[in-house]
Amino acid sequence: MACLHTARHGMYLSRQQGKHASYTPPQQPAVDADRASQGHSSDAADKEPPRRSFEYWATEHLYISGAYWGLHAATLMQLSDAIRGQDLKKLVLRCQQPCGGFAGNLGHDPRILHTLSAVQILLILDAYQEIKTDQVCQYVIGLQLPNGAFVGDEWGEIDTRYTYCGLATLGLLGRLHLANTSAAAAFLKSCFNPDGGFGIIPGAESHAGQTFCCVAGLLLCDALDEELARRTGEWLLQRQAPSGGLNGRPGKPVDSCYGWWVVATLVLLGQRKYIASASARSFLLGLQHVAGGFCAHAGDPADVFHTHFATAALSLLGAADDGLAPVHPLYCLPTSVVERLPGHVPLRHWPS
Predict the structure, then answer these.
(1) Comparing C-alpha atoms, which of 221, 97, 174 is closest to residue 343?
(2) What are phi and psi of 96, to 5 degrees?
(3) Is the peptide bond before 351 cis (omega within 30 degrees of 0)?
(4) Whole-angstrom Cα distance, residue 227 to residue 340?
């Protein structure tokens, strides 16, 4: 999802900012130049790859989300003891900014996407009490526009991913009542297309990742209706190829990460039984790399993003068969983590 972009963002954003000229993003603190210049070498939790590598500069800003992908995958595989949890927790907490949001790494600006990843990491590490809930929620609520959409950061990019991130963060922290859920639901429904899928903004092409975000967001807002659920399920079922793999859009190649985006959404819609689960599971298992991890496509190198979402999808398709812990389809967290949250309300699948 972190790679979904479109040139239409700018056009839609300009229209929305014109409508909501009164919106003022929360003030962000200046970067601490001294701390940023020191890099991450002051703490054992902050060890990093060589800064001269292309890989470092290409992914540095995604560190917190990458840590969530790796930690969650290891937890589902019941290998979390291999993770240096205390060191990771220490680094995540250092990425929280005075405004309440979390940056993707030290020296970066806070974003709603990385804020959700940070909360997910801390919950997996059983550090709920160390989350500054009031500050986090104040930051998240400050990113909701009058039209219901959540923007990604102070610069105002609109994308249905961010609305899901805002609602999910508030839901995990028990503060969903702080959001304007009726407006959020109206925005998400405005991104629904005649083919049955959802796009990143109104009028944008349907995409399986965005469809997950919108369906999950509507469930969080208790605003998913029967007709929309039926049509969305039909569109999602068309994403499965004869190989058993799933794609994100018509005419596109299958990709391991869509195992999660498609299957999780069908689970939320109460339509998992219609997917060819055995062939989907076989397809995903065939994308394991000889060196470990999962690839996007056969022959590609493995990466932590696809390893995470392939593992989560396999958990949904048959956790017991693969020795994986059950995953929560709404929050993409171990079910055991969600169930121990204060005030946890059991997930209401559609239909109820």
Answers:
(1) 174
(2) -75, 135
(3) yes
(4) 33
- Per-residue pLDDT of 7-29, as tens digits, reads 233 333 333 443 333 334 434 33
Torsion from C-alpha of 43, 45, 47, 51, nearest 10 degrees: -90
- Are 131 and 77 spatial neighbours (Cβ–Cβ below 8 Å)? no
The Cα–Cα gap between 128 and 335 comes to: 15
* Tokens encoding 114: 């990385």
Residues 6+ positions from 91 with CB-CB distance below 8 Å:
40, 43, 45, 46, 67, 106
The terminus-to-terminus CA distance of the chain in angstroms comes to: 28
SS3 102: strand
- φ, ψ at 177 (rounded to 5°): -65, -15
How far apart (Å, rounded) are the C-alpha atoms in residues 73 and 78? Answer: 9
Q: Which residues pair with 158 in a beta bridge?
A: 151
Helix 112-124 and helix 63-76: axis angle, to 10°?
30
Q: Are 274 and 266 in contact (CB under 8 A)?
A: yes
pLDDT at residue 9, as a whole number = 34
**d(Cα 261, Cα 259) in Å, to the nearest integer?**
6
On whether the CB atoms of residues 264 and 308 are closer than 8 A, the answer is no
pLDDT at 212: 98
* Cα 93 to Cα 34: distance, rounded to the nearest angstrom: 18
DSSP 8-state symbol, 305 = H
Q: Which tokens belong to 236? A: 């999602």
Q: For the purposes of burial, counting CB atoms within 10 Å of the CB of 160, is it exposed (0-12), middle (13-18) or buried (19 or more)?
A: buried
Instruction: Determine the pLDDT at residue 100.
Output: 98
Extract the tokens encoding 284. 């995903």
